[in-house]
Design goal:
Number of helices: 3
Number of strands: 39
Shape: globular
Structural class: mainly beta
Mean pLDDT: 95
Largest sheet: 4 strands, antiparallel
Strand content: 35-45%
Helix content: under 10%
Distance between the termini: 39 Å
Radius of gyration: 21 Å
Length: about 500
């Protein structure tokens, strides 16, 4: 169903060292963005430059690839995106509403915002200082003022000078340390006022909650028209920040049933997806975690409460042996039901020395049967997979996945169209933000939303994909724009990409 091919020349330089520095196992993300506006989604890969750990190499640059009709050309040299630090993740969004997607790049000792100036060139712009280790972030218009605000996910305070020895010193077996040995951090919210950013972490109450953040995803948990934020935390309870509509957020993760799994445990939560998986109109939450923890699916009941459907859906048994990072809920076979793709790889790179497990793992597709259950399909060859970015990179109507791998070139999983028909929507806001981020789209029982914040440390295409089975013409498409405007499209032919402008 999905074939894998390596189309990229660079390797992700995580620089595994004998000291097992914690940052080495965490890169890297993938960002999908059409930076040159030609209608073909391009790719950006953050890269873990070694800073003072080891000697810097020429290949340590972040990488920008231009999509030339399904082939990728490295255009990093003139882009201004090489970077200088140990970069982990990226978030793509048009913060200045000029029609060109910009990039936020998250790093260990510093993060940066790059404005897309056109012509394949980006320039760094000033934002409030983000201290310590940022994993990634996401763009959403939390205050509905027509421009995108930036949510920054921070992990832990890390200092190589005080990093503990973990493993078995008597055998000379060193491992990456458990998060318990590091102090957690609060996340950061930067409000965008016409291109000028203000740190409102404290005022919004986002900054009052310390965790060990790994990913953020956005959705509207209660359909009140205000975008909420879900944050996965590594071995500490997850956060669900409910937007109160007055500039503040209420953290309801425990009350909503998504802070822990159904055993009452805080998992090593990694990637996050906030999307309606079971076609009931309410956005669910999917989380990746480490082996023996499973990948939870929290079903939204519509009453500000989620139910854990991990084991009844058969996802629990299918994912027990895997350690997941990037993830995304998309309809890969165009049958009208969103499947879930997961990028896998152990957090340790020497797992074989102390267990029967393999550290390199295949990726996994959880095929949605449409009856509340999923069937696992292994994908590709084993590797230390991390971030994943989703889009239709060759315009054949099937969703593709670009996946970052530690110490190897990224890999592309090409989707195959099959018999199912499809429709893609590219929204442009006029009174909402230009990206249309947060817009809710309904076709029949299917609901989807414009968002680029998907998975782990990554950003996916802002185009919204629907699989439609054998439907040749969609009788009705309903769009709810972030501004509150509603729009209806009638009798739309399938197997095409449709651009929609806010009225």
């Amino acid at each position: 169903m999905i074939l894998a091919a390596a189309l990229f020349l660079h390797t992700l330089n995580h620089y595994e060292t004998a000291e097992k520095h914690q940052i080495e196992t965490m890169p890297g993300g993938v960002a999908v963005l059409d930076f040159d506006g030609d209608g073909w989604d391009d790719l950006f890969f953050p890269n873990g430059a070694p800073e003072s750990l080891v000697k810097r190499k020429p290949g340590d640059c972040n990488r920008l690839y231009r999509n030339v009709r399904g082939q990728f050309e490295d255009v990093t040299a003139k882009s201004g995106l090489c970077g200088t630090g140990y970069d982990i993740g990226a978030a793509a969004g048009d913060f200045d509403n000029d029609g060109r997607p910009d990039l936020f790049v998250a790093g260990v000792r510093g993060s940066a915002l790059y404005r897309n100036q056109g012509g394949g060139v980006f320039a760094q712009v000033a934002i409030p200082t983000i201290e310590d280790w940022a994993i990634g972030g996401g763009w959403f218009d939390y205050d509905k003022d027509g421009d995108l605000d930036l949510f920054v996910v921070r992990y832990v305070h890390w200092d190589p000078k005080t990093e503990p020895y973990c493993g078995d010193a008597t055998q000379g077996l060193r491992t990456y340390c458990h998060p318990q040995f590091y102090k957690g951090l609060a996340n950061v919210l930067l409000r965008n006022d016409g291109g000028k950013f203000t740190d409102v972490s404290a005022a919004s109450r986002i900054g009052g909650h310390v965790g060990k953040g790994m990913a953020v995803a956005f959705g509207d948990v209660d359909h009140d028209g205000w975008m909420d934020a879900f944050v996965t935390n590594d071995t500490t309870p997850n956060f669900l920040f409910r937007n109160r509509g007055d500039g503040t957020f209420e953290e309801i993760g425990d009350a909503a049933g998504v802070a822990f799994n159904d055993d009452g445990r805080a998992l090593s939560s990694m990637g996050a997806e906030f999307r309606d998986i079971d076609n009931d109109g309410w956005e669910d939450l999917f989380v990746t975690a480490l082996h023996n923890e499973t990948f939870p699916w929290y079903r939204n009941t519509g009453k500000l409460v989620f139910e854990d459907r991990t084991y009844p859906s058969r996802i629990g048994k299918a994912t027990m042996a895997f350690s997941g990072w990037g993830c995304g809920a998309f309809d890969f076979d165009n049958d009208g039901w969103k499947d879930v793709f997961v990028a896998n790889g152990d957090v340790q790179t020497n797992t074989e020395k102390f267990s029967s497990r393999a550290s390199k793992q295949t990726n996994l597709l959880l095929r949605n049967a449409g009856d509340g259950t999923f069937t696992p399909v292994p994908m590709g060859t084993a590797a230390w997979h991390r971030g994943a970015g989703f889009g239709d990179f060759n315009h054949d109507g099937a969703m593709d996945v670009a996946v970052a791998r530690l110490g190897e070139a990224p890999v592309m999983h090409w989707g195959t169209p099959g018999a199912g028909r499809w429709l893609r929507l590219r929204l442009e806001g006029t009174q909402s933000n230009r990206d249309g981020a947060g817009a809710r789209i309904r076709i029949g029982k299917q609901v989807n939303r414009v968002t680029t914040a998907v998975g782990y440390a990554s950003a996916s295409s802002r185009e919204v994909h629907f699989g439609l089975g054998d439907l040749a013409v969609v009788p009705r498409i309903e769009i709810e724009w972030p501004s509150g405007k509603r729009q209806t499209l009638m009798q739309v032919k399938t197997n095409q990409t449709v651009s929609v402008r806010e009225p």
